[in-house]
From TrEMBL:
One of its GO terms (cellular component) is membrane. One of its GO terms (molecular function) is transmembrane transporter activity. Gene3D superfamilies: MFS general substrate transporter like domains (1.20.1250.20). It is found in: Membrane. PANTHER family: MAJOR FACILITATOR SUPERFAMILY (MFS) PROFILE DOMAIN-CONTAINING PROTEIN, PERMEASE-RELATED. This is Major facilitator superfamily (MFS) profile domain-containing protein. It is a multi-pass membrane protein. Its main location: membrane.
Length: 497
């Protein structure tokens, strides 16, 4: 049990007591608080979106480059070369996650995220100069290392922990540390969908860069990598100056006053009681892994990112198979992305507005399933193209939705670390599924790949049904006072359905 004290008319846990700045007392919905949150939005979300756009641009431009001539020059149409070039990225992504996270703990969040972003841009630029399939595969394996995003806990003999993040989970974790539960999905959607939007623009940019064919003796597909790689290097340099770490450190960099930083920590503490890091030991790590809902969230994330990877890697190829030229195929790959951004943010707004998660995830999984089936089976190419719009909208919107679903229903920073590790690891498995399910022998319709990704949407619905049943049952017991122990160890905490 916690001791309770009163401070400025507020009830707080004594060991976690953070005085509410007088300017914000009893002003949870006051303009001052909203302005502070908006200030954080403007500083944090754009740079996180720009950073994560780096990995999304890579998903898009490797497909753009393929239809722009890289396939013929590097003979990617031989056997399963293209699939292999995609797979090596995810294999490296999984195996180098731990070393990446250890380095991050030693050098700091801003330093490491900026460094791996710059390295990513350098390798991407280097892909513009490869002359063989083998060299391309090596470059993509190095990219897998740069983007290693598996969250791993770091243990020491004192039992304390640091939350170690790679590129994407680092961004997700930063967002969860700055906002309360029912602000999270909109913010996750904002930074992620900003990245997706950049990916859509990349399709249009690729169409223009293809027109540089022959300049400097380079092919159009080479210019796609060179120009976009250089742009990423510029973003990485800017990120080093802009990125802020966590609320408790923000005032040290002059971004917030000490009072404002304390207030941000306090509102998070009042919302979910985990503003202060808890110790993460091997015993606690093993205990968290026994929580079945973490595995359910991870499987949902895997099932959601699989079609997202598939559309990124294969949309230009599928569109080209409809009879369009390579340039037009790249151009037509952009509109589904832009529509997905609008749809996904609309669903995110509804989820936060009505404080619900499961209905949003279910609706988007159904939309994704319908889109995949239309693309797979409809006889008219125009309608098949419409299916790409629906499929992209559903899966892209569910990525921040599933992340928010987990974020809202677990507590303690140690459990967030383990849960994010599990989600990101399964996300990499989703990339492997997308790369291997869409086989060259199935081109150009890729029925097996489309069915594999569609089947995973059904898995999302099954898992969602299970978690909804379990969460609803626990909430009802809490309401009746028959629950044997508090949900997630905190009195009054309820699951978000």
């Amino acid at each position: 049990m916690y001791k309770i004290y009163l401070y400025e008319h507020d009830v707080v846990h004594d060991e976690l007591a953070l005085p509410r700045p007088k300017s914000y007392i009893n002003e949870k919905h006051h303009t001052s608080e909203k302005l502070l949150v908006r200030k954080i939005d403007m500083r944090l979300l754009p740079i996180l979106g720009a950073l994560y756009a780096i990995s999304l641009v890579d998903r898009v431009n490797v497909a753009n480059a393929r239809v722009a001539g890289m396939e013929e020059d590097l003979r990617l149409d031989v056997g399963s070369r293209y699939t292999t070039a995609l797979l090596v990225f995810f294999i490296a992504h999984i195996f180098f996650g731990l070393p990446s996270n250890i380095l991050l703990c030693k050098v700091g969040t801003a330093n490491w995220l900026a460094f791996i972003a710059f390295a990513w841009g350098t390798v991407m630029l280097g892909q513009g100069f490869v002359t063989s399939y083998q060299a391309l595969a090596v470059c993509r394996a190095i990219l897998g290392f740069c983007g290693a995003g598996r969250t791993s806990p770091s243990f020491d003999q004192l039992g304390s922990s640091e939350i170690c993040e790679g590129l994407f989970p680092g961004c997700v974790y930063l967002v969860s540390c700055w906002y309360v539960r029912y602000e999270v999905q909109k913010r996750l959607a904002a930074f992620y969908l900003f990245s997706v939007n950049v990916g859509g623009i990349s399709n249009v940019l690729a169409f223009g860069l293809m027109k540089m064919e022959g300049i400097g003796g380079m092919r159009g597909w080479q210019w796609i990598f060179i120009i976009e790689g250089f742009a990423i290097q510029v973003i990485a340099i800017a990120a080093w100056f802009i990125i802020i770490d966590f609320p408790d450190k923000a005032h040290k960099k002059g971004f917030l006053t000490k009072n404002d930083a304390d207030f941000i920590e306090r509102r998070i503490q009042e919302d979910r009681g985990d503003a202060v890091p808890d110790a993460l030991t091997w015993r606690v790590f093993g205990k968290h892994l026994l929580d079945l809902k973490l595995w359910a969230f991870a499987l949902m994330f895997m099932s959601t990112v699989t079609p997202a990877y598939a559309f990124a890697y294969f949309t230009p190829i599928i569109v080209r198979s409809m009879g369009y030229s390579a340039g037009v195929a790249n151009l037509l790959s952009a509109p589904p992305v832009f529509v997905a951004v609008f749809s996904a943010f609309s669903f995110a707004w509804l989820g936060d507005r009505y404080r619900t998660r499961a209905p949003v995830i279910a609706a988007q999984a159904i939309i994704c399933f319908a889109g995949l089936m239309i693309t797979a089976y409809h006889k008219h190419n125009t309608i098949r193209y419409l299916g790409i719009f629906l499929g992209s909208a559903g899966c892209q919107g569910n990525i921040p939705a599933v992340l928010a679903y987990q974020s809202n229903n677990i507590r303690c920073q140690s459990k967030r670390s383990v849960g994010t590790a599990l989600q990101m690891g399964f996300g990499a498995i989703g990339g492997i599924i997308a790369s291997s399910a869409f086989r060259e022998v199935d081109a150009p319709r890729y029925l097996n790949g489309l069915w594999a990704t569609a089947g995973l949407q059904l898995l999302v619905l099954v898992l969602l049904g299970g978690t909804t049943f379990a969460f609803t049952r626990a909430n009802r017991k809490l309401a009746r006072g028959t629950l044997q122990q508090p949900i997630e160890g905190l009195e009054g905490f309820k699951y978000t359905i």
